[in-house]
Specification:
It contains ten helices and no strands. It has 204 residues and is mainly alpha-helical. It has one domain: RNA polymerase sigma factor, region 2, helix turn helix motif (Rna Polymerase Sigma Factor, Chain: A). Helix 8 packs across helix 10 (182-202). Mean pLDDT is 77; it is low at 1-22 and 121-135.
Length: 204
């Protein structure tokens, strides 16, 4: 599946999400340092800026609204404790996505049955995120088909595809988030694309 095609399915949801950088917005590093010192307003601003993207990643990884909400809250509780450990050596989104991905994997490990559902895609819940945009019927069908196919990928493949082809991160950033070598990230993405093509071609 071409990267441009996959982005068309998702950009409506993440285009106006966190990471906006207006001329007067305080940097994520400055907000993190203030939050680490107990500044509640700084943490509230971080939450406002990044909640939507964190929730979106959790939702696409779990394909379950309730779990995505729970994990998102866990991520921000963890962020509240760890904000001071962000040193600005990488982009804040990369650092935060790493925390998020770890929390998702922990949830998968805690529930073997949930992990099997994620791998096999049996009874996966198809969910819609973001504001309704009244897409054309063919676009909606393709979107639902992609959601269903993603639910059948192993977590590593799914994460590599979402981060690179949906979120637009480069391979080096994806590798940082997933905690693996760049070569492994590229391999997972390639296998995810191959598997997605097979799944989409085999659908009725």
């Amino acid at each position: 599946m071409a990267r441009e095609e996959s982005l068309q399915f998702w950009q409506g949801e993440v285009g106006d999400a966190a990471g906006q950088t207006g001329p007067e917005r305080e940097s994520d590093f400055a907000l993190a340092q203030r939050a680490a010192k107990g500044d509640a307003r700084a943490f509230e601003e971080m939450y406002r800026l990044h909640y939507r993207r964190v929730y979106g990643l959790c939702l696409r990884m779990t394909q379950n609204v309730a779990e995505a909400e729970d994990i998102t809250q866990e991520v921000f509780i963890l962020l509240h404790r760890k904000a001071g450990s962000f040193r600005g050596e990488s982009q804040f989104n990369t650092w935060l996505y790493r925390l998020t991905f770890n929390q998702v994997l922990m949830r998968f490990r805690k529930s073997r049955s949930r992990r099997e559902d994620a791998l096999e895609g049996d009874g996966a819940q198809i969910v819609e995120t973001g504001e309704p945009r009244a897409p054309k019927a063919t676009q909606l069908i393709e979107r639902i088909a992609l959601d269903t196919a993603l639910a059948q990928l192993p977590p590593g493949y799914r994460a590599a595809f979402i981060l690179h082809d949906v979120e637009g991160y480069e391979h080096e950033e994806v590798a940082q988030i997933l905690g693996c070598a760049v070569g492994t990230s590229k391999s997972q993405l390639h296998k995810a694309r191959v598997k997605l093509r097979k799944i989409l071609k085999s659908r009725p």
